[in-house]
């Protein structure tokens, strides 16, 4: 890898860390960047997951203020993310990606629609079901998103924000902090799995880790300043870009 390519990957990691902290979809920056510098797809995917894990943790730490009072939610949802992330990583290593890749744009589109119409859907579903503990389907939905995140992860944050927005009674910024914790859990267990059983391009992983950690703190610092409508709009826009990128 030339120094120019190394800087390119580092900057992609920084951008991914920022986007992941605010929305989630940073993989759509780093994965194409790794392919562009000649990293084979599977190696790029696993190395990217390892590199993005520290950035996800940085975003979660940056949103620690929004996590106050959500310990019970984390205790219920993090295990679902961990199990889902492990299963998703196993699927990546043992199955062809053609079938799963075909449904990814559909999942992202569904997530965008749910985020966009979440205020109206929440009222339609009725407020009594949205208690502090959350709707019954939140845990299995978080598990399913963890499987997706362990497998590939692009727009994992969009899907999580849609699930949390519909299933929990909380404001958007607090849900964003919780989303960062869940994404960190998925990325971390998948990264550990890949380190144990698969080759890693450690130069790539370190460059992305450094960039995504810086970006994670930046995203957490400035992302919380966005008003709900701006954050919701950004989520939908990132999701739309994800769909176009993955389809074409």
TrEMBL record:
Predominant location: membrane
Subcellular location: Cell membrane
Name of one Pfam family that matches: TauE
Keywords linked to the UniProt accession: Cell membrane, Membrane, Transmembrane, Transmembrane helix, Transport
Transmembrane segments: 74-93, 100-121, 141-166, 178-196, 202-222, 229-247
The keyword Ribonucleoprotein appears for this protein: no
UniProt topology in membrane: Multi-pass membrane protein
Claim: Transport is one of the keywords in the record: yes
Family: Belongs to the 4-toluene sulfonate uptake permease (TSUP) (TC 2.A.102) family.
The name this protein goes by in its record: Probable membrane transporter protein
